[in-house]
Write a structure and sequence with these properties.
- By secondary structure, the chain is mainly α.
- The chain has two domains: about 1-40; about 70-280, MetI-like (MetI-like fold, Orthogonal Bundle), CATH 1.10.3720.10.
- It has helices spanning about 1-40, 45-50, 65-70, 75-105, 110-125, 125-140, 150-170, 175-185, 190-200, 200-215, 220-225, 235-240, 250-280.
- It is globular, with a radius of gyration of 24 Å.
Length: about 290
């Protein structure tokens, strides 16, 4: 009887693990195959692409990448996205870090109410706030300023989630550590820079990766915010210019897409260990 039960449980575990592996492989293939397809297509000529979409190129050609810079102005769009991402991420990290520290460690009035409002804003769909924000920026003239409208939107929409993540991490830091710093005469700013920040590599890296992924790949607000200007166009909106009204140079477009993916690849490559530790650190209170 015990042997039969053991055999059934082992069989159940084996089937479950097999299904789990199938699901994992399917998820990986869902994300990886389009990247491989884009890279292979970027090395083809236009006739090769239309002759057989799935075939490998007869010869590896890098002319599409050169054309993406010379004809498609991908370099200009790339630089605009870098400027937007750097300014947005600096503002998000600074504001969120200060707010999270205040909400978790300083005795400020209505802290719980502020946290509830942040949670409400976090669950609201971004699309519901686009029209009010656009009207406000239009009235103040900020839509005409290069980068300003896009950055304001990105910072505003990224702050609530970032504050919540950092606040949860702050609460894992022993209060005795901060009290000892105050007894030694350390001010709040000095405590933040010299004690807290070195402990927050994981949480900060997590927020950085999540916010960079959003800022770098966002399209809807970027397209709306640049309707009235042809300056400061980010790379996501610039990719739309690669599509013609009747025909599209797919090899050159996929070359541009591969260029767009490079920053995301390198950021995940260098920050992955901090990213994983940051995701799990805030979930357990010390």
């Amino acid at each position: 009887m015990n042997t039969k039960i053991h055999h059934l449980s082992f069989r159940k575990f084996s089937i479950g693990s097999i299904l789990l592996r199938i699901a994992m492989v399917s998820c990986i293939a869902f994300y990886v195959l389009p990247i491989i397809f884009s890279f292979i297509t970027s090395l083809k000529t236009t006739p090769e692409f239309y002759q057989n979409v799935w075939a490998l190129p007869e010869k590896f050609r890098y002319e599409n990448y050169i054309q993406a810079f010379t004809e498609g102005k991908i370099g200009e769009y790339f630089l605009n996205s870098v400027i937007i991402a750097v300014i947005s991420l600096v503002l998000i990290q600074v504001f969120a870090l200060s707010a999270a520290y205040a909400l978790s460690r300083l005795k400020i009035p209505f802290a719980n109410l502020v946290l509830v409002l942040l949670l409400v804003i976090q669950v609201l769909p971004t699309e519901s706030m686009i029209i009010p924000l656009y009207m406000m920026l239009s009235k103040t003239g900020l839509l005409k300023l290069q980068y300003a409208a896009i950055i304001i939107g990105y910072v505003g929409w990224s702050l609530p989630g970032t504050i919540i993540i950092l606040k949860n991490f702050f609460e894992t830091i022993p209060i005795e550590l901060l009290e000892a710093a105050r007894i030694d005469g350390s001010g709040e700013f000095n405590t933040m820079v010299k004690i807290i920040l070195p402990l927050m590599k994981g949480a900060m890296s997590t927020c950085f990766v999540m916010n960079f992924t959003y800022v770098w790949g966002e399209l809807m607000w970027a397209q709306i915010a640049t309707l009235l200007t042809d300056k400061g166009i980010p790379i996501t909106v610039g990719l739309l210019n690669f599509q013609g009204m009747f025909t599209t140079n797919w090899p050159m477009l996929t070359a541009a897409i591969c260029i767009v993916m490079l920053p995301l690849f390198f950021i995940f490559l260098f920050l992955q260990k901090y990213f994983v530790s940051g995701l799990t650190a805030g979930g357990v209170k010390g």
